[in-house]
Specification:
CATH class: Alpha Beta
Low-confidence stretches: none
CATH topology: Carbamate kinase
Radius of gyration: 17 Å
CATH architecture: 3-Layer(aba) Sandwich
Helix content: 25-40%
Structural class: alpha/beta
Number of strands: 11
Number of helices: 9
Shape: globular
Number of domains: 1
Length: 246
C-alpha cells in the first residue's frame, strides 16, 4: 500500500479485477444483465478517475462452463476453448458498458480474433494502462485446462499489478462454506499456505501459487455491495486479504 486508509489517495497504482461470468448474469442466472453491467462500469469509472490503472479478467460461466460440459461427455479441451470464447462475449459487453460510462478501454484476447479484439501482447497491455485505458483480458490464458482465476493471476503478475481483486458474492474468505455450515467464520487475513493447506475456497491452487511465488496480495470481496472496489483501492478494510502475512 502507498497511502493510508481514509487519506482519499489510492493505496494501489495498478490492479487486476477478476470478475466471474456469473456476476454479469445478476439475478437471472444466465446471460448478461444490462443493469449489472452498468453498475460495474460506473464503479470501474470511479476508480479510473482516481488515477488507478485497471485491468479486468472476465470469466464465461454465465454463457458456457467448460468444466460442466466436459463432465457431460464433451472432450475437456474442446469444452475449455468454448468457455474461452464465452469470455470474449463478456469482455465485449463490458467494454461497451465502460466506454458508455466515459472511459477508454481495450480488449486483449489470448486467442487471436483481430476483428473484435487486439491480440494479447504484454507490453501493449502495459502501454494501454499507462495511457489511462481500462484493459480487459479475454480468452483466459489461451490454453485449455486453466481456469480464469489462473489467467487473472498470470496477467496480474505479467503486468506488475500491486493487487489481485477477486470479486465474489460473499464478503470474504470463510473457514467453511457459509451456505452449508452455520459455524463458518469469516477470515480477515489468510496466508497463501493456509489457503492452500486448508482448501479454502479462494481460488484454485495454481492461481494461489502464482500469487504466492510473486508476493502478489489477493483481496476477496463482495461485488454485490456498491462501492466496494473504490473502498479497497482507497485502502479501506473490505473482505479478506490473502498474502504472505506478517
Amino acid at each position: 500500500m502507498t497511502a493510508a486508509a481514509g487519506s482519499g489517495r489510492p493505496a494501489y497504482r495498478r490492479i487486476v479485477l477478476k470478475l466471474s461470468g456469473e456476476a454479469l448474469a445478476g439475478g437471472q442466472g444466465y446471460g448478461i444483465d444490462p443493469l449489472v453491467l452498468e453498475r460495474i462500469a460506473s464503479e470501474v469509472r470511479d476508480v479510473s478517475q482516481l488515477g488507478v490503472q485497471i485491468a479486468i479478467v472476465i470469466g464465461g460461466g454465465n454463457i458456457f462452463r467448460g468444466v460442466a460440459a466436459s463432465t457431460g461427455g464433451m472432450e475437456r479441451a474442446t469444452a475449455d476453448y468454448m468457455g474461452m470464447l464465452a469470455t470474449v462475449i463478456n469482455a465485449l459487453a463490458l467494454q461497451d458498458a465502460i466506454e458508455k460510462a466515459g472511459v477508454q478501454t481495450r480488449v486483449l484476447s489470448a486467442i487471436e480474433m483481430r476483428a473484435v479484439a487486439e491480440p494479447y501482447i504484454r507490453r501493449r497491455s502495459i502501454r494501454h494502462l499507462e495511457k489511462g485505458r481500462v484493459v480487459i483480458f479475454a480468452a483466459g490464458t489461451g490454453n485449455p485446462f486453466f481456469t480464469t482465476d489462473t489467467a487473472g493471476a498470470l496477467r496480474a503478475v505479467e503486468i506488475g499489478a500491486d493487487l489481485f481483486m477477486k470479486a465474489t458474492k460473499v464478503d470474504g474468505v470463510y473457514s467453511a462454506d457459509p451456505k452449508v455450515d452455520a459455524n463458518a467464520k469469516r477470515l480477515e487475513r489468510v496466508t497463501y499456505i493456509e489457503a492452500l493447506n486448508r482448501g479454502l475456497q479462494v481460488m484454485d491452487a495454481t492461481a494461489i501459487s502464482l500469487c504466492m511465488d510473486n508476493k502478489l496480495p489477493i483481496i476477496v470481496f463482495d461485488l454485490t455491495r456498491s462501492g466496494n472496489i473504490k473502498r479497497i483501492v482507497l485502502g479501506e478494510t473490505v473482505g479478506s486479504i490473502v498474502s504472505s502475512g506478517g
